[in-house]
Structure formats: C-alpha cells, structure tokens
Design brief:
Length: about 350
C-alpha cells in the first residue's frame, strides 16, 4: 500500500479574492495498491492557481488526455476574459470602468454568476455581496494620506463611510442580456463565486465526454462525480487552520465525498497588522469593517461548487448561530466550522455533515 496526497493552495491571484479573505487548502487523499486502476491526471494553471482533473479510466472513452487539456485551457481562458478583474478588457473590467447609466452585453456565464450572487446576497442578508469591491479596495489600500505608504494603516472612518456608500447588491440591474451601471463608482468583483463556477464548467465538460467517476479541482475547490479508483468515496482533507503550517502539513479532518462539491474558506493566513493589532482581510460588506471573529475556517458541501464557494465566503462573515441556522434550512447543503479557542480548535458541524477527524 502507498499514500498519495495531492495538495493545492488556492490563492486566487487573477481574481482579487472577494473580501480579500482566505487561503485555506483542501486536497484529495488517495490510498492505492497495485491492483487499482491508474488515474488519468490532467493539470495546468487556472485563475492564478492550478487545476487538477483526475479521471478513473472507463471503457469506451477514447479521448486523448492532451485534447482534454487543450479544451480545458480554452474554457478557462474564456472565463478569465469574462470575469477576471486583472484582464483589462474582460466583461467585468469594462463594466467597472464604464460611466453610469451605460449598458454592456454580457456572456451567459457572467450573467449566471451575477444572478446566482444576488441569490446568495438575498439569502445571507448581504453577508455575500459582489458589489463590495470599493470597500475591499479601501481596506487593502489603507489610510490614503499616511506619511509612509509602505506601512499599512487602517482606513479612516470617513474613508470607510464613503466606500460603504458605493456598495449595494440591490442595485445590480439587468435589462435583457445587458448589465446596467446604475450608479457612479459601482464596481463588481465575483471572485468569491467565479472559481466555483469554473470548477462546475470543467465538471460539465468532463461529464460530457462520458466519464462517470472523476474529480475536478481548481485551487482547492472540488467537485466529485461517482467514486474513486477503489470504488469508494473520494477523501478530501481539511487543513488545521494554523497560520504557520504549510497546506497539507497537518490535517484537521477528512470528508468523504461522492457526487458533491466542496469549498473551504477562512481568514487565518491573511491579515493586516498595525500597532501590533491584526486586521482580518475579510471585510464585512454590511458593516464595511474588518471581521473580528473566532471562526478560523468554514467548509461547505453542496450540489455544485458555485454555491459551495459563495456560501463558504458568507459563513465566514455571519455569526456561527446565524450560519448554522441558514445551512440547516437549505436542501443538500452541509457545513463544518473550525473555531479558534484559547486552548485550541473546536469544530461545529451541521446535522448531516460526515467527517473523519484527526486522520
């Protein structure tokens, strides 16, 4: 017997991660022996991180892995051209720069992501808000008129108030297939949900080839079809949320997954420091302030990765009680919270979440 651990950090570089939050690693753990089928592995760069496609060989499918990789890379390129704020002429960048009352015809993918974002904004009472880019940028930049621009300082109350006035998911408007700029300085950033949608897009493509048992992963976000090469559920590891540990160095829990998607997010690696005080990179769009919470990370299981991605983000902002109540009210959604306590970590999970602790 031998063990193979596939580890991927998901620092979403080509997207300024919504609310500037997290870097939490989730990775598949594979146990193997010589009698097993050998996986077909396809890897490459994706959205500032990497992707991994792991296929269980299947009779009757004769698509060359290189052709699959070429098509995947093309799909990812298109998504970047639609939703990356780092691509100057992407659809989202053009929207963010255009004047008020203008309209832009957007792709079906971008429209799907924005509409689903509004859905999660409504369900979380604004804890998830893709219009929060102005306040995230304000906190990332820090106080504007500080003497030393190389030393970060928290923004002033006035700067926060001004930025907060520029956000509001309720003002996102469509007319047919066009997105309307409804007010000055309206800016969108969909990176807290777009990577999940990217996983789903690759999942649909692999599914269209006829594969039944496979894994799609982009930067730690995963969607699973069927079983692994041992005929069992895929095993996905969750990092112990210690800031000084490398991804995969120490596992807090393992989650068995079959025909589900998973996303994990948290705030324990990224933060600002001023006068010895840490400020989270997670910015609450409701209060426009850096989050102060003992929630170290949240893992969400859902039917698709786009929803898991968005909800994992929101649950880092909502209180534990609010988040647990929301998850229990949703169909086919489960969650695991890792809570930072004075004497270590504790976990809270929704009623049907299956985990294996301390592998």
């Amino acid at each position: 017997m031998h063990t193979i651990a596939l580890v991927n950090i998901f620092q979403f570089v080509n997207y300024t991660r919504f609310l500037q939050l997290l870097v939490v690693a989730a990775f598949p753990i594979f146990f193997g022996c010589n009698s097993q089928k050998t996986y077909i592995n396809i890897t490459g760069p994706a959205m500032g991180s990497t992707y991994t496609i792991r296929l269980v060989p299947q009779r009757g499918i004769r698509v060359e892995p290189q052709q699959i990789k070429t098509n995947i890379d093309s799909l990812l390129y298109v998504l970047n051209q639609q939703m990356s704020t780092y691509v100057m002429n992407s659809e989202i960048s053009l929207f963010n720069r255009m004047p008020v009352n203008s309209a832009i015809l957007i792709s079906e993918d971008f429209r799907t992501v924005v509409q689903r974002s509004i859905h999660w904004s409504n369900l979380t009472d604004g804890a998830f808000d893709i219009s929060a880019m102005p306040i995230v940028t304000t906190w990332k930049t820090g106080k504007a008129d500080r003497e030393d621009l190389n030393v970060w300082m928290p923004p002033t109350d006035l700067e926060v108030t001004i930025a907060k006035s520029k956000i509001g998911y309720q003002k996102i408007k469509f007319v047919s297939k066009s997105l309307i700029k409804t007010y000055k300085d309206q800016q969108l950033d969909v990176n807290a949900i777009a990577k999940g949608w990217g996983v789903d897009k690759l999942f649909f493509y692999i599914q269209s080839l006829g594969y039944n048992n496979f894994m799609v992963e982009i930067g730690g976000e995963v969607r699973i079809s069927g079983k692994n090469n041992r005929g069992r559920s895929w095993q996905i590891g969750i990092d112990l949320p210690e800031p000084n540990l490398q991804p995969g160095e120490k596992i807090y829990a393992v989650i068995p997954i079959q025909d589900k998607a998973m996303a994990t997010s948290g705030n324990y690696r990224d933060f600002y420091v001023y006068n010895s005080k840490k400020y989270s990179h997670i910015i609450n769009p409701i209060t426009a302030m850096a989050v102060e919470s003992n929630i170290a990370s949240v893992t969400v299981l859902a039917e698709n990765c786009m929803d898991a991605d968005a909800l994992a983000t929101a649950l880092n902002i909502m209180s534990l009680d609010e988040g647990l109540e929301l998850v229990e009210s949703l169909k086919d959604v489960e969650a695991l919270w890792i809570i930072n306590k004075e004497n270590g970590f504790e976990s809270v999970q929704s009623s049907k979440m299956k985990i294996v602790k301390n592998l």
